[in-house]
């Protein structure tokens, strides 16, 4: 099939004209245009370049392959052609090294989803506003596909434009299997932006771009399974479905709670690790027990709370999960293999390796979770091999 002869993009801009400034690309929905979505930019952080791109297909005034009530079933050839058209423009305005965040509304959200699923390493973040990921586009939605790609997702609980089953599937994938650290907001209402969503989006963009500019960005996406010295090889896959986890702060495990006896055995092992002191966590809920190293790595990204050396904590018994920090490849492996998920603020307000690890359900899982925490301890210790 020959490529569609799309014209060069029609782009409306706002904000910084510095060609090195972070770029936020705004993608409109069906029946809208670049000028309407650009009206969002004055409500978002300053010092950033904003570019609103008109969809290349006139039909419906939006990204027309998502045409069935705003989303539909994309035609693979049209999608490939249009992502290539978009990529050619993006490579011209944002060469390697310039951070790019996508913000899509409705059909534009589906297009943003297609772009990041196809090439997550190209982007610094993505906002999926009142839309769905393009699950029928032939793109991979494997576990860990979006590891280390911060995502902001917002939905209305009475949205009748996007089918509820697709909204729910998008929500579930982003907050679980994708591996993306996802800030989520679901509000009363339909298919329209609210002041609260815009405010929260602005906060998220500011924190993400601030983190990238000061700390750098971990490359997003799947990667080969790393070697775990603390597990004598590869991390196994966790069996069964993943537990329910809260999508609001504080992040808590809400099902498949570890038996209290296993939680206590895990804690006793953790407090025996070399150089570890214990006490109340400085960042978690009341009753969480923190693990602290006073002499360890000088890298603040290796800690939950670098100022006090807290690298992990165990949540109270009703929860039984842990938070800890891992190197990027190990953190992505934990997400992909089903042992945990990133904290929603990982890579924005917190270390990109800030992870929740689910509580162990049996003796086999206890041994694996011990190995995961020992890897966190080795990271905070500045060690490159097992340090217990």
UniProtKB/TrEMBL annotation:
Residues 309-376 form the Luciferase domain. Gene3D superfamilies: alpha/beta hydrolase. GO terms for molecular function: hydrolase activity. InterPro entries: AB_hydrolase_fold, Luciferase, Luciferase_dom, PLipase/COase/thioEstase. It comes from the Bacteria. Residues 16-201 form the Phospholipase/carboxylesterase/thioesterase domain. This is Phospholipase.
